Amino acid sequence: MRQLSLRSKLLLLALLPLLLSLALIALAVRQQESELASREHALVRASYMDARRTELKHYVDLAVSTIRPLLARPDGPQQALQLLSSLDYGPDGYFFVYDLEGRVLMHSRQPELVGQNLWALRDPQGRPTIQQLIHQARAGGGYVDYLWRKPSSSQLAPKLGYVVAVPEWHWMLGTGLYLDGIEATMAELERGARQNITTTLLWVAAVAVFGIALISAGALALNLSEHRSAEAKLRALAREVVQSQEDERARLARELHDGVSQALVATKLLIESAQQEPATAGRLQDLALKRLNSTLAEVRHLSHALRPALLDTLGLPAALQHLAGEFDAAGGTRYSAVIDGDEAALPEAVNTALFRIAQEALNNAARHAHASVVAVTLRFERGGGLTLTVQDDGQGFDAEAAQAVAERGLGLRSMRERADALGARLTLASAPGAGCRLAVTLSAADLARIPA
């Protein structure tokens, strides 16, 4: 399975909290809007029912007050029924009159029921409709929920009725309002609430998409910027490496031509002269032997410059002391190397990397620091760790500025890359006029990961 890059992991770490937060916000908004819609539904329904109850009671009170003058008249019941049948309010608002035994006396919207006894009438749920109405009327009047056929649609619909008794005539007088209108209103409110929730969730999704796009664009811009910077640094480092190789080849060529080659030519001439002049052959051979010894010493010096033999034979501490001694022998600046702690065998990769880092640091100090003292310290920690320190009292420099430009600070980047290859931590403390301190630290765990 392909491993995610560090940049991809960081991008995921940035996106996941955003997506999780937006998901939680969406859930909270949905929950809050659902609860708000439920409360609004209950409040609207309660308000509507209160208003309808007040309205029904007002209608019935008005009807009772209309027929009250007729109570004492002999023909009052007939006139009252005619008067009540003429009263209505809207297509489905009407009055009805039953006697207290359940016989229909007046029903303006369903005249075919007049004269029928509906005492035993029950709704589809089995509830005794007329008995409930008469019971409520006998109890002093009140409200009753029941099902009745709606005149405008001829369909059964829920109805809220208000009934009172007219004891003088042994009547039940009432009216009612159909409730299917409020159910339609409630359904419309629910549709509006769902639409609002959907709209809110779409906004949350849009914010999520925008956030993801913004983070992705930022990551892409950062990636491109880092990629360009890395490419510039790699190109500059490659040029520096090639130039260093060419400079090293040129130096070796000069050393071989001016030193080893000339010494070998002189030795060859001495040997040829010894062969041609037997009388002076002994003296000439002695001179040739001295020249050969001098040539061997110069070859050893060249090989040591390429890779010190001490690094392979005696290890890093001796190689660092020898390196500091060579710089110190040049005069002007005092160089020293100190080994602190109990020495331990180190992997070849550690020996080479730390030696080259120290060599680069000493070269930089010799060329740029104008220091009076340069100290190299190799400290073997008790826990198995290792620290290499190179410190001088020179003029210092701005390390961050030196590494910010691709064409500068290549030596510093080279040292840092050697340290990174080991898993070591390289720290550099320097400022103009304050000297420079370079430290490379390897923990025991770091050393254990490096093959011997």
Through-space gap between termini: 30 Å
Mean pLDDT reading = 81
Low-pLDDT parts are none
Level-1 CATH class name of the largest domain: Alpha Beta
Which sheet architecture does the biggest sheet show?
A: 5 strands, antiparallel
Task: Work out the radius of gyration.
Answer: 53 Å
CATH superfamily of the largest domain: PAS domain
CATH names the topology of the largest domain as Beta-Lactamase
Structural class: alpha+beta
> How many β-strand stretches?
10
Explain this structure to me?
This protein has 452 residues and is an alpha+beta fold. It has 2 domains: 1-178, Beta-Lactamase; 308-449, Heat Shock Protein 90. Helix content is 60%, strand content 16%. It contains 11 helices and 10 strands. The protein has a 5-stranded antiparallel sheet with strand order 2-1-5-4-3. It has a 5-stranded mixed sheet with strand order 6-7-8-10-9. Helix 1 (6-67) runs antiparallel to helix 4.
